[in-house]
Write a structure and sequence with these properties.
4-stranded antiparallel sheet, about 425 residues, 20 strands, 8-stranded mixed sheet, Alpha-Beta Plaits
C-alpha cells in the first residue's frame, strides 16, 4: 500500500465548494488503495485578514501572540475538510501541528522544525483513516504554538513525507506545475515536466511562489520527490527531483521576479575591520534575512553598505540600523522599496561562459538599469526598478529561448553564449 502526502494551498480551499472538491479528490486517492495524509493551509486570504486584525489591535504586535492568532487559520481548514470527508463517507481525523507531533525552535513567526514524532498519524493510518494535518505550525520547547513563516505548510508536508517515508509528496495548486516564469507576467511561459532540486531552490528563493524554499531544501536533504499538480484537473504536473545528466544540457531553466524586497544603504560607514560584521550580526540576532550585499569603497576611509531585506522587515530593520548609525558614526540610512529582484536560474550555466553578458546585454538593450548584482553557480540575480521588472522578465525569457512559439511564428532563437568552456561560476 502506497502512502501519499498531499498538500492543498489556500486558493484550493477558499470556498465550501472547493473544500468539498478537495475532499472528493482525497477520497479518490484513498479508494485506489493508498494511505493519505493531507496537509492544509488557511482558506483563501484568511492569513492576510488575521494580520490586518492584529494590526488594528497593535501597530507592532508581539510575535508570540501573532503565532497564536495565525495558527487558527489552518485549524479552520483542518476541521472543515475533515467534516467534508465525513460527509462523503470517508474515515478521517484532523490534527493540529502539535497534535501531529511537529516540534519547532522558539523563533516565533519564523520557526524551524526540529523534530517530528508522527506516532499519532501512524496510529490513525493503521486504522485506515485519512489524516488531515494543519500546516504552518508546531510546538516550541516552551509548549507555545509557533508558525513556520509564509508558505510554511509546504515545509510541513515535506517534513511529514520524510518521516513517514511517503512514496510521493504532492502539492496541489491553482497552476498545473512549475513554469519557466510566472505566466501572469510572461504569457509565453512553458510548464516544465521536471526540475532539479537546486534549480527549484534558487527559483523559490528568488521570488517564485510555487513552493517555499525551505520545503525544497528539506526535500533535497532527504531525497523526497515532489510533484506540483493542478487542483482543477488530472493532467501530469512537474516533478522536483535529484539532478540527472540530461538536465545539464539546458542552459536556463526559469526566470523569477521578487517584488517583495527593499534596498537599504548605510551611508558613510567607517572603512575598518568588523563594521560589516557588527551591522549584520544585529540583523541576524533579530532573525532578519539579508539577501544581496554590495560594499561601495571610497578613497576617504568611508564606504556605503547596501543590501536587500524583505519589505515586511523594513520597519524592524530600520530600528536596528538607526542604532548602528549612532554606534558606527555612519551619516545616513537610505531606503528604497520601489525595487525588484529579477533572477535567471539553470544548472546548465555552470558549464557555459557568457551567461552574465547575455543577461546584462539584454537589460541594457531595453534601457533597464542594474542597481545590485548577485551570483551563484546556477543563478544570476539583479536588482532593478520595480516598474521595469515585468518587462525585464519577458525580455530575458525570450532572450534565453524559453518562450513558447506563437501561432504562425517560429520559436525565437536562444541568445546563447558562443563558447562552451567549462567554468564554475556564471
Amino acid at each position: 500500500m502506497a502512502l501519499y502526502v498531499q498538500k492543498y494551498g489556500g486558493s484550493s480551499l477558499a470556498t465550501p465548494d472547493q473544500i468539498r472538491a478537495v475532499a472528493e479528490r482525497v477520497l479518490r486517492t484513498r479508494r485506489k488503495g493508498n494511505n493519505v495524509v493531507v496537509v492544509v493551509s488557511a482558506m483563501g486570504d484568511t492569513t492576510d485578514h488575521l494580520v490586518d486584525l492584529a494590526n488594528q489591535m497593535h501597530g507592532l504586535p508581539q510575535d508570540r501572540e501573532m503565532d497564536m492568532l495565525l495558527a487558527t487559520g489552518e485549524q479552520v481548514s483542518v476541521a472543515l475538510l475533515t467534516m467534508a470527508l465525513h460527509a462523503i463517507g470517508a474515515e478521517a481525523v484532523g490534527l493540529t501541528g502539535p497534535q501531529a507531533g511537529i516540534y519547532t525552535d522558539p523563533v516565533h513567526t519564523k520557526a524551524k522544525i526540529l523534530q517530528v514524532i508522527p506516532s499519532r498519524i501512524v496510529e490513525n493510518l493503521r486504522k485506515g483513516r485519512i489524516v488531515v494535518v494543519a500546516g504552518f505550525q508546531g510546538l516550541t520547547p516552551e509548549a507555545d504554538i509557533a508558525t513556520l513563516g509564509r508558505g510554511g505548510s509546504d515545509t510541513t508536508a515535506v517534513a511529514l513525507a520524510t518521516v513517514l517515508r511517503a512514496d510521493r509528496c504532492q502539492f496541489y495548486k491553482d497552476v498545473p506545475g512549475v513554469f519557466t516564469a510566472n505566466p501572469r507576467i510572461v504569457p509565453a511561459a512553458q510548464k516544465l515536466d521536471e526540475i532539479a532540486y537546486d534549480e527549484m531552490l534558487e527559483l523559490a528563493g528568488a521570488g517564485s511562489e510555487v513552493l517555499q524554499s525551505r520545503a525544497v531544501e528539506f526535500a533535497k536533504k532527504y531525497g523526497v520527490t515532489l510533484e506540483v499538480l493542478s487542483c482543477l484537473g488530472e493532467e501530469p504536473g512537474t516533478l522536483v527531483k535529484k539532478e540527472v545528466n540530461t538536465m545539464e544540457g539546458i542552459l536556463i531553466r526559469g526566470i523569477a521576479v521578487d517584488k517583495k524586497q527593499a534596498k537599504l544603504t548605510v551611508v558613510h560607514v567607517p572603512d575598518r575591520p568588523g563594521i560589516a560584521a557588527s551591522v549584520f550580526r544585529r540583523l541576524a540576532e533579530a532573525h532578519i534575512n539579508v539577501d544581496m550585499i554590495v560594499l561601495n569603497v571610497s578613497d576617504d576611509g568611508h564606504d556605503n553598505l547596501s543590501f536587500t531585506v524583505p519589505k515586511a522587515e523594513v520597519v524592524r530593520a530600520r530600528k536596528i540600523l538607526d542604532k548602528v548609525l549612532v554606534d558606527t558614526g555612519a551619516t545616513e540610512l537610505r531606503m528604497n522599496e520601489n525595487i525588484a529582484m529579477v533572477s535567471i536560474v539553470g544548472i546548465g550555466m555552470r558549464s557555459h561562459s557568457g551567461v552574465a553578458f547575455a543577461m546584462f546585454d539584454t537589460l541594457a538593450r531595453h534601457g533597464i538599469n542594474i542597481e545590485l548584482i548577485s551570483t551563484s553557480e546556477i543563478k544570476i540575480a539583479v536588482v532593478i526598478e520595480e516598474s521595469r521588472a515585468d518587462e525585464a522578465a519577458r525580455a530575458l525569457h525570450q532572450a534565453f529561448g524559453l518562450s513558447r512559439p506563437q501561432k504562425g511564428k517560429a520559436k525565437p532563437k536562444a541568445r546563447r553564449p558562443v563558447t562552451t568552456r567549462r567554468r564554475k561560476t556564471p
